[in-house]
Design brief:
The structure is a single chain. By secondary structure, the chain is α+β, with helices and mostly antiparallel strands. It has one helix and five strands. Strands 1, 2, 3, 4 and 5 form a five-stranded mixed beta sheet that branches. It is rod-shaped and about 135 Å long. About 25% of the residues are buried.
């Protein structure tokens, strides 16, 4: 018995289609990996910025409370009507407000917090690091804040719900501005409050 001859397979020359497809898949996977890495880095930066801002906010808020306490202490100890004004920067941080109203001082064209930056020469800010008994971290962003306390009225009504009240007792109003200290050009927050006291 004879078997029919099996024809030998014919080999066609390769054209490289598998290589091209593999290269395209490798390129797509590389692009996805780079996009994922960039997204991760952006999220890390965003979380770091949020962290820095939160620390700066807490530092400024601490400065605001320290300034309000300073105003309260000055009133309790007998307020001095001759507090410094914008012409005389004082490390004490308490000033008489003279840049608006009928008693405006032409040499005080702007609010004090718009003047020189905290820590600069001629600045009006008090460095809260000079206040004893308050520990601040000197290693990171939460450094001691700066603050300014301005007496804006000696004759304000004590009842804010009835500003036309003619009661004989009048209250003082202070504007307290606090700024977190910058560390390495990172986040900075400025907060302001109006503090009333008798």
């Amino acid at each position: 018995m004879t078997c029919p001859a099996t024809p030998l397979p014919v080999f066609r020359p390769q054209r490289g289609a598998a290589l091209i497809i593999a290269m395209i898949l490798l390129l797509v996977m590389s692009l996805l990996a780079v996009a994922s890495l960039r997204g991760t880095l952006m999220q890390e930066r965003m979380s770091a910025n949020t962290h820095d801002r939160d620390l700066a906010f807490q530092s400024a808020e601490a400065g605001l409370r320290m300034g309000e306490q300073q105003a309260e202490n000055w009133v309790r100890n007998g307020a001095d009507p001759d507090w410094p004004d914008c012409r005389n920067p004082d490390a004490g941080g308490l000033y008489r407000h003279r840049n608006t109203g009928p008693n405006a001082d032409p040499q005080c064209p702007q609010p004090l917090w718009e003047g020189p930056a905290p820590g600069d020469n001629g600045a009006f800010w008090r460095d809260a690091a000079n206040d004893a008994g308050v520990p601040f971290n000197n290693e990171g962003l939460s450094l001691a804040p700066f603050y300014i306390v301005e007496l804006i009225s000696n004759q304000a009504p004590c009842n804010i719900n009835n500003p036309d009240d003619d009661a004989p007792i009048r209250c003082r109003r202070f504007r307290v501005t606090a700024s977190s200290r910058r560390a390495n050009g990172r986040a900075q927050v400025v907060l302001q409050s109006i503090y009333a006291t008798q």
